[in-house]
Amino acid sequence: MTQPKRVLCVGMCVLNVVHICQEYPPKDGRTRLSEGYWQRSGNASNNCTVLRILGSECEFFGILSRAPAFQFLIDDFKERGIVIDSCPRVDIYQPYSSILSCRPTNTFTIIHTDMGFPILRFHHFKQYVKLENYKWIHFEGRNPWETKPMINMIRRFNENLKSNRGKDDDVKAITISVELAKPTQDLLPLAIRADVLFVGREFALHIGWKTPKQTIFCLRELLTTLQLREEKDDNELDLCFRSPHIICPWADTGVDVLTANYEYFHIPSSPPIHIIDTLGSGDTFVGSIIHALSHMKYSVQEAVEFANRLAIYKMQYRGLDCIKDYLTQQEEEED
C-alpha cells in the first residue's frame, strides 16, 4: 500500500520551561512555584502536535539539536507519531524559553534564549524534502530570503504536475500556506506565493491596519500590487500570481476571512468561560484549519468555525492534549 500523503510544517522547534506561580516574585526575593513543566513548542512544532492529535499524518521540518539536554524534544515528536526523519541536526543547544505564568491574573512573561542557533536554509529544503510525499506544506513565516525559493520550488513542482498529468491521473497539487505573525514587511514576498494566508494581529498592527476587516481587504489589494511590481526572475513569473484565502484572527472581535473568490465573512468572538492557558492557542487555530481543509474536506467557512471553537476550548486548559477531550465530547454529542 502507498503511504498517505502528509502535511509538512516548516519552521522552529523550541523548548518551553513553564513556571506556574501565584504571584510574580519580588525583586531580590523568592517565590515558590505551584507547578512547573517542560513543553515542546515553536509555531510549526505546535501545528504538528495539533494536526497529529486531530488525526492528520504530519511531519516537522526544521533544525534540531543533537545535544542530550534536548532529547526530550526528539522523544516527544516520536511519541506523538510526528515524522522528523528529514530534519537537519546540529550540536548547538536548541532555542528555549523560560515562561513565568501568574495563575490569578492569567498573565505571563517569556524570556527567550537563542545562542546563535542556525536558520533553516533553502539548500536544506532542497536536499531533504521529497515533495511527492506531501499534500500540504505550511510555512511559519520567517527568513523570507531562504523561504521564498522553497515556495518557488513547490510551485514549480505543481506546475510540472499539471503539464505531465494524464487525463486519468488523480495527482493533487501541494497546497501552500504561510503564517504572517512576526511584525515585519519582509514577509510579504511569501504572501504573494501562498494559497492560504494566516495573518496575525501583531503583523497587521505593524503594517498600520487597525481591524481584521481592514487587514484582509487592504492585504488583498497590497498583494495584487506586489505581484505586479516585484522583480522576479523569468523562470518564476508564472509562479507568483495567487489569490489566497486570507484568514485574520483577532482575539477581541473574532475572525475575518476573505476567500480566494472574494467572499467575505466574519466569525464573532466567543470568549472562553475561564482562561487557563493561551500559549499555543494561535497554533491550535492554524493547525485545526489545515486539518479541516486537507483532511476533513471542509469549506473555508466550516474550517474557520471549527478551528475557532477548538482554539477557544484549548484556552480553558493547559497544554494541547486537551484537544483529545474536545474530540471525545464532540463524538458523544453526535451519538
Automatic annotation (TrEMBL):
Domain Carbohydrate kinase PfkB: residue ranges: 253-320
* Top-level division of the source organism's lineage: Eukaryota
Q: Name one GO molecular function term.
A: ketohexokinase activity
GO terms for biological process? fructose metabolic process
Entries under Gene3D superfamilies matching the protein: 3.40.1190.20
Write down a Pfam family by its short name: PfkB
* PANTHER family linked to this entry: KETOHEXOKINASE (PTHR42774:SF3), PHOSPHOTRANSFERASE SYSTEM TRANSPORT PROTEIN (PTHR42774)
Name of the protein in question = Carbohydrate kinase PfkB domain-containing protein
